Every structure is written in structure tokens, then in C-alpha cells.
Amino acid sequence: LGRLHIHLQVLAVLRLSDTIVGRAIARIYIEVIRNTPLLVQILIFYFIIGRILGIPRLWAGLLCLAFYEGAFAAEIIRGAIVAVHKGQWEASRAVGLSAGDTLRLVVLPQALRVIIPPLTSQYLNLTKNSSLAIAVGYPDLFNVSMTIMNQSGATVQMFIILMTTYLIFSLITS
């Protein structure tokens, strides 16, 4: 799943590509994924794509989250690459670096300082968005706590435990 997320982030570079087809594919994917609700995507992915491909609930939810977060991460990375001053690109070309070496050795190290804060926030959103997988029946933390609340009647205590758990996950992630 981590590899899938990394491959989706290649869309950031594809969106900056010189080819019209590459830019169009990346833009359509990113705009469609970013501008439709995640819950709708999970339902479509599970009930249509998942059933056609025979994907179980867990993998349908995970793959959908990876595609969704990958689109947001691609835009964060693209924005950071564009934020690197044009003079850096020109200077690296002047010393004879290829386009790939320029990106790898000059641009990406400088873009990292711009990438890290919003990408950390995006990973926090991923932690919280994972609770939407209950829509396809995957029992996550929220769903299990609701079951405990219904059986024990300890609603306030379970909400405190649930909030504390999400807070711990968020603090560890950030």
C-alpha cells in the first residue's frame, strides 16, 4: 500500500511534465479525486470496482484511501516543486545537470521544507478519514467503540476513550 501511495505521488511530477497527455491524465485524476467526497468514493470503489475485481472490504477501503490521499499528496508535492525559485533550476542546468539530476539533487531537497508541514497534516487527515471505512462494513475503531457503547451503555466513557485514542494517533503522526 505504501508503494501505491508513492506511485500516486509521481503524479505531481507528471502534472509538471511537458507532454500534454501526461498533464491531462494527472490533472483529471487529481481534480476528480479531490473534488468528490471520500465517502462516495469508498462506496463506488467497494460496491462497483471491488465487486468486479473481487476485492475484500479491507482492501477496498485501504486502496480507496490511498488513491484519495495520493491525489492530495501529489498537489502538495507539485506546489512545493513550483515554489523552488526558478534561479535554482537555471543554475543547476548551467553547471550541466540533467533534468532528472536537477530534480533529485537540487529541487526536491529544497522542496522538502515546503512539503513536510502540509503533508504531515494530510497524514493526520488520513488517520481520521479511515473511520469512513465503516460505510462498507469494515469494523474500525469508531465502529467497535459504538458496539461497546450499545452493549454496555458506557457512552461518555467510550467517547472519552475514542477521542483519547485519536488524539494519541494524531500526536504520534505529527
Describe the structure.
By secondary structure, this protein is mostly helical. It contains eight helices and no strands.
First-residue to last-residue Cα separation:
21 Å
* Annotation, overall tally of beta strands: 0
Mean pLDDT: 85
Give me the number of helical elements.
8
- Main sheet: strands, sense, barrel: none
Could you estimate the helical fraction of the residues in percent?
A: over 70%
Q: Topology of this structure?
A:
Elements: H1 2-15, H2 20-34, H3 38-53, H4 57-83, H5 86-94, H6 99-129, H7 141-152, H8 155-173
Helix pairs in contact: 1-2, 1-4, 2-4, 3-4, 4-6, 5-6, 6-8, 7-8
How would you concisely characterize the structure shown here?
This protein is 82% helix and 0% strand.
Name a few traits of the molecule.
mainly alpha, 174 residues
